[in-house]
Amino acid sequence: MSSNLVWLSIFVLSVFIGFEVVSKVSTTLHTPLMSGANAIHGIILVGAITVTDHADTNLQLGLGIAAVVLATINMVGGFVVTDRMLEMFKGKPRVKKSVDAVGGETK
Amino acid sequence: MNTNLYGVLILAVSVCFIMALKGLSSPKSARRGNLIGAAGAFVATDLVFWAPGMTHQHKWWILGAIAFGVVVGVPAARKIQMTQMPQLVALFNGVGGGAAALVAIVEYLKLGSGASTAEVVATVFTVIVGCISFSGSIVTFLKLQEIMTTRPVVFPGGRFVIAGTLLGTLGAAEWVIHSMGNTSLAVMAVLALLFGVLFVLPVGGADVPIVISLLNAFTGLTVAASGYVLQSTLLIVAGTLVGASGTILTRLMAAAMGRSLFGTLFGAFTAKPQAAVEGGEARSVKSGSPDDVAILLNYAQRVVIVPGFGLAVAQAQHTVRELADLLTSKGVDIAYGIHPVAGRMPGHMNVLLAEANVPYEQLVEMDEVNPTFPQTDVVLVVGANDVVNPAAKTSPGCPIYGMPILDVASAGNVIFLKRSMRPGFAGIENELLYDPKTTLLFGDAKDSLTKVVSALKAL
User: Fold this and answer.
1) Cα–Cα distances in angstroms (integers) from residue B334 to residues B267, B323, B328, B357, in the given order
2) Is the CB of A34 less than 8 angstroms away from the CB of B345?
3) Does the pLDDT at position B243 exceed 90?
4) The domain B290-458 is classified under which CATH number: 1.25.40.10, 3.10.290.10, 3.40.50.1220, 3.40.50.2000?
5) Inter-chain residue contact A86 with B30, CB threshold 8 Å
6) What is the ipTM, given to two decimal places?
7) B347, A29 in Cβ contact below 8 A?
8) Average pLDDT of B100-116?
9) Which of A29, B202, B402, B458 has the fewest CB atoms within 10 Å of its CB?
10) Is the pLDDT of residue B425 over 90?
11) Is residue A15 part of a domain?
12) Mean pLDDT over residues B137-147, rounded?
């Protein structure tokens, strides 16, 4: 099998996995899912590091470093912001809060 | 590091990303999913320094750049208000697209004459789509931040300019592939950036989140394409996962708003300018005081609260819960009617109300809450407009026509908490405001709610 065919297989199979994993998702989670997927494509950081490492000229080095900065912001910021969104879903009280809690939780 | 070991570890990271997306699709596992994704990304970033063939000649520059990115990205993500979340996601997506484009440009500069056509085409694809994603995301950021108008921007002959720019970009791509020159690449990148701006400008108001999701999928595909050029399985898998899941997500979002994706993207070109609402300014509305509102609520059997972007802006989620708890203690039946795209992103309201610890079972989705409106005495619309605008049903040709809405008009009374008579994000007049059973309470949602709460306590 030629290496191009290997890449193509990986690509096609990944498309199907991507379709499959998100096919049933409630509207509640659309925003965090978009944000999480956004963080995952920050993995371009790995590519940015690789090309910067192999840079031969100052132009290549400069562009590569800019790419590393942008990719890091995408990846790290993306995961942190998604976590902040999801933090609010956890520990949800199953029982209704009693009325005496009124007004006590405004921070 | 041994190539096989490296390959196995990279495979493990790819699995992490699949599990992350899978986890994010269900409320129970969402947070864990995100953490698995983050762990995978962290491991991958460490691993690449040990990858076979690394020279480490610019190690300090790279580490410095990463540190700088962390210093910029983390505080931005931590300090951002919940209301500004959508714009931040747009911005992060944009910088990701920009990073992919830059990686491809560097790779292009290194490609010698021995490069295969497939490699050059993949590089050119990455530069074009990465640039579109970058500039397009910046425009969506500016729209959501309301630095520029949120309405569709259309100008005479706009569609020809856009078509021309796209053809120009493709022409330049052809030129790049043949000449392998630097000028042609620069021309192509500039045209692609311009196309990204022009492509998003005509998209208006409520459709912006759909476009963010689409651009997110685009960035995923550019990452996959750079993975091919860099011979990195990880980038191909991760990029393709995001591209594919992003496409599905974009379609789900469009479906939640009753729009076709095509209509969202190209609707602004075909839509006729709206006829001005006849005598809109002259008509009278009924505005009430906080006491009037408190009395209406106090004697209701069932109240449905419809939150919108105004609630988010005013940070009124805690106050609204205080009001709901007070009414519950008075024996009023309370529910929140959640429109899937209320706010600026799907699920925006759920996130906000979850922050205020609103009981999950009080949040009722549109399809379930709509049949209950005829039995509802009072609907309290807190800073929402387009999602309850009957124009979506009655006036073909208006930008939100066909979007499913919350049928609040069939309830006994409707109270709008609004800042002003200004139309909503989509810029359409709301007939419901002039309905005799509607009462308006002007002011910041949090102030108004606080006044209503104290009026209720005094009753």
Assistant:
1) 38, 10, 7, 15
2) yes
3) yes
4) 3.40.50.1220
5) yes
6) 0.84
7) yes
8) 88
9) B458
10) no
11) no
12) 89
